[in-house]
Amino acid sequence: MTPDFPILSVLIFLPLAASLLLVALRPSQALARGFALAAALAELVLAALPFFSSRLPAAYPGAPAGFFLFEDLPWIERFGIRYTLGMDGISQIMVLLTSFITVVAVLISWRQIKERTPLYYALLLALECTIQGVFLSLDLFLFYLFFEAMLIPIVFLSGIWGNGRPVYSAIKFFLYTFVGSLLMLVSIVTLYLMHGTQTGSYTFALPALVQTSVPYGLALWLFAGFLVAFAVKIPLFPLHSWQPDAYADAPIAGTLLLASLLSKTGAYGLIRFAFPLFPEAARAFTPVLYLAAVFVISFGAWIAFAQKDMKRLVAYSSLSHMGFIALGIAAWSPLALSGALLQMVNHAVTTGALFVVVGMLDERSDNRELAAYGGIWGKVPALSFFFLFFCMASAGLPGLNNFVGEFLVLVGAFKVAPVAALGAFLGIVLTLVYTVRLVQEVLFVKEQKPLELKDLTMREAGVLAVLALVAVYLGVHPTPVLDLFKAPIALLVSR
Amino acid sequence: MIIPDLHTMMPIIITGLGALVVLLCGPLLLSGTTTSIAVVTAAAAGLWAVFTAPSAAPAVAGLTFTPLAQFLIPLFCAAALLTLLLSHGYNENRAIKGEEYPATVLFALFALCVLPCASNLLILFLAIESVSFAFYILVTMDLQRAESGEAGLKYLLMGAVAAAFTAFGFALIFAGSGTLALSGAVAHAGNRAIVAAGWGVVIMGMAFKLSLVPAHLWTPDVYQGAPAPVAAFLSTSSKVAAASLLLMLLAFSPPMPELRIPLVLLSLLSMVVGNLAALRQQNIKRMLAYSSVAHMGYLTLALLTGTRDGYAALLLYGTIYTAMNLAAFGAIASLSLEQERDQITDYAGLGFSAPLRGGVLALAMLALAGLPPTGGFIGKFFIFYSAIRGGETALAIIGILSAAVSSFFYLKVVAQLYMHRSSDPAPRAASAADAAALCCAAAFILVLGVFPAPLIQLVDAALQ
């Protein structure tokens, strides 16, 4: 691949172009989903390309250290706003993850979405565009633009095709994230102005802004602005209350994207922007983050146990698992950070898969009550197998992916904050409790009312099998992925 | 006056002549023809202004074709043009017939074109009052509806008070500085108090025109009563005109620290009260009226910084706001052809049954809420950027939070459009004129959201 080929821009705008085509042409249902799948697969191939290309940083003059793909164009010159994209190991994995999960999202919507299909897939692809933009932007203005623009497609997706109280949940989600992001905007502008007065060059470029010296007191405020924006997305206590509603009421692909990708944009933002920009303030906030993380791990698990609705149960379990990622970030040591990053991928795969399985059950029987199920093990063996598999993966069974991620986070955190690590460890016990309950009530206890269930179709089995293979692969051989993080993490931690 | 001067003043002359031609020849022509003539007139005036070089020397006593005029005249012409396109079908449906309507729109445009050219307080006053005068007539144009007349009367009474304030203020500034020339309206040491008082009274008058809190009370009633295309024109051009009047006064005179407190209060109250009051509205026009109060608060925030950045943000936001509100009211007008759609709930499901107009309305709402990638985001960004840079951080944060509140009521409309169902039959298809006007406004909103750089250059040139 030559440096002239703008692969990063294509990664961002290919889904958008496909999305616009879908809106403009409004093809039939079958054509729309076929086209969406083709676009999503093309994006996946494109996202995999950097793995096979030679990495010569010298090919990209002006690229910051660690970034092996880089694009930089003037955009709004009067304010020093540039269109700057860059890819290092972290963004590479995130971009690949995004394209992979989008393919899954397209596939699991196959039968479920029956009306306004072209618009549905158009929104799905538009969302992919904005998420890729978040993971690739190195200009804070551009990043903010993508971070905010994510809201539009996801709100439409959950509001139009959701169930339960979709409009209420969609608006609640929108308001939480919108307000959070606006506080980040104030921080960004303030930082930009400070940098401008200090150096005379007004720029939103991340590598330049990292050099700004911010007085400690102000840095605390600015960091808080970033933290609120990202904590809403992750979501961390006490900014999480939109999450169970939004997860429960969104269509299944919407939930998958919210849980697997949108929550990761928050964690990614903390790692890429908030911590490097204000290292001292971040250190000051670390105890708060520990507290929030440990609380979310235990509290999420506790509430998950009390749920009667399967999707809500998985939503709270997702909340709980995100706590580990927050814990790893807060510890900010190479070990914990690589655990957190690996866990970001793991969480996307396993929690995403759990939502997919629950969605498949819901699609079959139109019921998400735990009490309505039971004894499906004998009836639908393939579906039950994957259900059990992903429950085990999510609970952290050794040999599967979550185990590695959580282990790294716990070991990494234990070195710097033993108390927090211990608290998180106790949270794992609670995780086991609700997982066992979920497995038992859905798969094994005697059913109250016989349900007519069909087993997996080829398409569904294929999707779940791929997700399961990824989970196994990351569980037994995570080294290639961890290797990708090494260099960027070393750069991040050395600041 | 010599030939080159005539040349530079042509936009004013074109609109004036066009208005007269439409009014005088109207009875002899078909109603469609008068609208066409008016559209051509507006387009011609706008294009003429675009291709004429601005100059510092007055062309006629009291009138100079400044860079600011070169920026604002095409903007006003575009707004008038879109209004004319949008109102054609709307008016025919409501039996608003005859040449008065296009002629009055052109008269308003004529006064709007004079305003940025004024280099003298008297002309400035005449221009802004002629704008208002044309709008008093436009608001009452729908004779079939009692509301329309009531709205016109309210607007006229409030407007008369505002005019009195403005005139009194100008008189005080004249008394203090001894000249009517805009560039000479500088306070002398001995008369500073008089000039400052004059300023205060002028700001009060402009607060009425801009519907800033506490002088905003007429706004919801007038927007609700006026025909929707008129509300579109009123909420954009007359506001931008009033804001640019303040801009011209402030830009020409040395800094007046006394003005900061009143402007801060007007801006703060407008942002907070406007957005909070809009939250409670069920009627979409009233909601947009209160939202416009809030948006004028943002404009005032940019104005009170007193910096080049602030003035640039004001012009930028004024332009984007014009596109957003024309799109919003235009879509409302076009969707209200066979039945009035006043309540927000009347828009249920229209995103699907009328995709173009529903889509434009949704886009306008997202833009007004300030979401990327729309122009509304860029506009708000530069307003708050200039405020933080100008040292008004606290006010900017309050403004940002109130803008966050506002996203709720804009989103309510979007939710109605796409997330609620309605059993009503689909509305009649949009006319070609409506569709063209709405597409123009929507394209403008989107293009500015992604490529604002050319407009920023134009704004910078306008402030030379």
TrEMBL record, chain A:
Domain of life: Bacteria
UniProt keyword annotations, A-Z: Membrane, Transmembrane, Transmembrane helix, Ubiquinone
Listed Pfam families: Proton_antipo_M
Transmembrane segments: 6-25, 32-52, 89-110, 117-135, 141-161, 173-194, 214-232, 252-275, 287-306, 313-335, 341-361, 382-401, 407-435, 456-476
One Gene Ontology cellular component: membrane
Cell compartment(s), UniProt: Endomembrane system; Membrane
Similarity field: Belongs to the complex I subunit 4 family.
Protein name: NADH-ubiquinone oxidoreductase chain M
Record organism: Citrifermentans bremense
Automatic annotation (TrEMBL), chain B:
Its biological purpose: NDH-1 shuttles electrons from NADH, via FMN and iron-sulfur (Fe-S) centers, to quinones in the respiratory chain. The immediate electron acceptor for the enzyme in this species is believed to be ubiquinone. Couples the redox reaction to proton translocation (for every two electrons transferred, four hydrogen ions are translocated across the cytoplasmic membrane), and thus conserves the redox energy in a proton gradient.
GO BP terms, alphabetized: ATP synthesis coupled electron transport
Membrane spanning residue stretches: 12-30, 36-56, 68-86, 106-139, 194-218, 230-253, 259-278, 311-337, 358-388, 394-414, 435-456
Membrane topology term: Multi-pass membrane protein
UniProt superkingdom: Bacteria
Family of the protein in this entry: Belongs to the complex I subunit 2 family.
Primary localisation category: membrane
Sorted UniProt keywords: Cell membrane, Membrane, NAD, Quinone, Translocase, Transmembrane, Transmembrane helix, Transport, Ubiquinone
Record's protein name: NADH-quinone oxidoreductase subunit N
Quaternary state and interactors: NDH-1 is composed of 14 different subunits. Subunits NuoA, H, J, K, L, M, N constitute the membrane sector of the complex.
GO MF terms, alphabetically ordered: NADH dehydrogenase (quinone) (non-electrogenic) activity; NADH dehydrogenase (ubiquinone) activity; quinone binding
Location of the protein in the cell: Cell membrane; Endomembrane system; Membrane
Source lineage: Bacteria, Pseudomonadati, Thermodesulfobacteriota, Desulfuromonadia, Geobacterales
GO cellular component: endomembrane system; plasma membrane
Catalysed reactions, as listed in the record: a quinone + NADH + 5 H(+)(in) = a quinol + NAD(+) + 4 H(+)(out)
EC number annotated for this UniProt entry: 7.1.1.-
InterPro entries reported in the protein's UniProt record: NADH-Q_OxRdtase_suN/2, ND/Mrp_TM
NADH:quinone oxidoreductase/Mrp antiporter transmembrane domain ranges (all copies): 118-404
